Amino acid sequence: MSLAQLAGLLADPTRASFCTALLDGRAWTAGELARYAGVAPSTASEHLSRLIAGGLLAEERQGRHRYVRLADPAAAALIEDLAAFAEAASPGRTPRTLRESTRQSAEARARTCYDHLAGRLGVAVSDALHDRGLVADDAGLAVTEDGRAWLAGAGIELPVRPVRAGGRPLVRSCLDWTERRTHLGGVLGAALCRTALDRSWVERIGSGRALRVTSDGGRTLRELLGIDLDPAH
Amino acid sequence: MSLAQLAGLLADPTRASFCTALLDGRAWTAGELARYAGVAPSTASEHLSRLIAGGLLAEERQGRHRYVRLADPAAAALIEDLAAFAEAASPGRTPRTLRESTRQSAEARARTCYDHLAGRLGVAVSDALHDRGLVADDAGLAVTEDGRAWLAGAGIELPVRPVRAGGRPLVRSCLDWTERRTHLGGVLGAALCRTALDRSWVERIGSGRALRVTSDGGRTLRELLGIDLDPAH
DNA sequence: GGGACGTTTCGTCCCCCGCCGAACTGCCAC
DNA sequence: GTGGCAGTTCGGCGGGGGACGAAACGTCCC
């Protein structure tokens, strides 16, 4: 597959909206995506087949449903990078409806970005880890010795060695386009997000990618990382 | 600018070939790119205007020439990532002509990848730095203390702190699609490549992106990093 | 100044691709 | 089985965009 063919898959507004929707890291059905993008089911079906053939999406059939999700972290990173570059080239537009505005502010507060935390929560976690010297960026972004100990203490496991050269980076900085700041992705970001969901520090709001910090989660984040989230915001 | 619009810029074979050609890190004239891609000058001119408007390319006018290059390291990284993903999705084709084959083998030996070293030379340098503990990848890819000292000893300067959060990473692993291995990019990769060119350890072959290791360079690489390049390959 | 050359603008052609509706295939529930 | 729902396949329509050549523009060299 050529660069142009790959880019061509993302060059259509409908297919691009599918991919950004799937950036919440979950599996959607073909019908959900069709309604989300405002196209006929037949149109969505054709688009999905092409995205899957191109290796960007993976499907899972269950009964009469076709569940579809991003193929792997590499595909997610690619789409994130493209979206970040496009956003940087010319900053986006403001929401027009109240419903959209509410959703956007919820997502700006806390959301998933593929499989890690984003929004103000994601940036706050990233900042806290930096401030406490658990990750450092002065010689390439990396987890420190202290960071490894802290993670072990919190019961969060990380592989000791990278899986293989060229594999998923252990920690990766991901540009947050609501905050215009970076948050943590990679294996570490995914582990933190999984832990937060597993232990109910955060929970999903409805079917979108927005998250709510539970009262339990707020306390834990304060104790563990000194994060004080403004509840009004 | 939307994701789809950005991807649309790269979705055309002619524009994509421009971008991959420019991955050698140098500035090409509009006419050179037109001949390279096999299209009329008028066609190339229109494509270039669109790529520049989209922020992927930057231009510099000199007399009756229009020099064009990749806009910045972020644009280069984006194109590299797309090319690597496309190549991974379905491995490429073998060359058909002798001329093409010769060029490919020269580029497989040593070439520039935007502003850093790639090919077997790039991978060898990357491996050597890893083996000697000058960079480490066990907690995120980073330059070690030893590495900083070694660089200072070799007269290669690196900024102490990242320029700004979200800026160019100090060191970045870049997938080498001839070697199917990673080599070093980012600020470190660029500094190494610049040093190698400035001190004539390597020199460019003709107008492509291929490099030749000079006899002086071969000796220096052996002394400094213990790299033994097979001259037959 | 004159001619060559690199580049651009414009007009035109044509193919590709995204969209829909209609009809069909499976799967599930009653 | 029978109806209903999710998804797919196909034909046809329409628009956008990439290609070229011709002509204009600006720069450099003699």
TrEMBL record, chains A, B:
Domain of life: Bacteria
Stretch forming the signal peptide: none
Pfam families in alphabetical order: HTH_20 (PF12840)
Domain called HTH arsR-type: residue spans: 1-90
PANTHER family, alphabetized: TRANSCRIPTIONAL REGULATOR-RELATED, TRANSCRIPTIONAL REGULATORY PROTEIN
Protein name: ArsR/SmtB family transcription factor
